[in-house]
């Protein structure tokens, strides 16, 4: 599928897709700039992009691969690619893996999840098969038992493990608890969720010679988003657009205007120039980011736009909590963090579920818990103010093992925010 000009894509979408025809009804016949068309409203997009009576697709569903999207938040939805679009998708992403460190002859264990229309396992396997360097692919999957996974990794001498950070940490914890390590692993290619400092420490204990690297930034609904930037091991959030396939914008979260200067956060909006069956034009990717240099160059992902929680009158981003934990945990005891919101005695309360290796000194954990609470209260003073006013319960820390953290059963991703409040 050749990459199209933006104006041609818009013309095609408004001619063939009832959804885009309605969205662009008031536009002039010809548009040439990205900012000439409105940003897609996701709720309207998915209300129109249904299994039956679909109003987004530009043709009947006659030749396509269908995947489920929705991830750790939201109701699962469906995303369609023709075989040409899918080939373009995986070929471009496979070329980005070379930037992540993929080398000729690497043996790569694919530990992503498959089945139930989920894309990541097949996507990574196909991307490796279409990468510009020869490699050996080990399609293990994320649901395989840890013991058999490790046997395959060792039998075939895997150089690279590719999976979500949660899956990689589950394997790492198993190794650490058994007093083992795998020094032969060279790279840990992660994707699907962010990798945090507490997870890096756990991975380093199990894979002492491995370098964690983002294998790229993509989603089933949004498509290609960003390829790795070589030399950014200390900040794996940095990516650059998949030119010429993708147009990436960062928009002001209040005004919707494009952000052009570096260091100013905004929401990521993407246009895919290689997709025609299910056009993706100025589609919100669901993440926040900032340019690291000139507009259109490298950008740094700042987390999910919706990955936060409201506890009583207090709004918290998961990243705020992660920062507080990282600053307090000077001895590297925490290996995973989960925010749990509960409601009891008529008030909301936030519980930080922190994972740590077994055998820690209870006094050390108690001191760390106090430091975390103090740091987060200082960073978000509205929370202790709301406690004082009787609006919410005081912040609490709950200790657990990494295997006790809740993950999405379909994707294997850590559920960063759990809302356990009753809904009725």
From TrEMBL:
Pfam families recorded: AMP-binding
Domain AMP-dependent synthetase/ligase residues, every copy: 63-271
Keyword check for Zinc-finger: no
GO molecular function, one term: ligase activity
SUPFAM superfamilies: Acetyl-CoA synthetase-like
Keyword Ligase: yes
Superkingdom of the organism of origin: Bacteria
PANTHER family, per the entry: BLR5969 PROTEIN
Transmembrane stretches, start-end: none
UniProt entry keywords in alphabetical sequence: Ligase
Record protein name field: Phenylacetate--CoA ligase family protein
Signal peptide span: none
UniProt-listed InterPro entries: AMP-dep_synth/lig_dom, ANL_N_sf
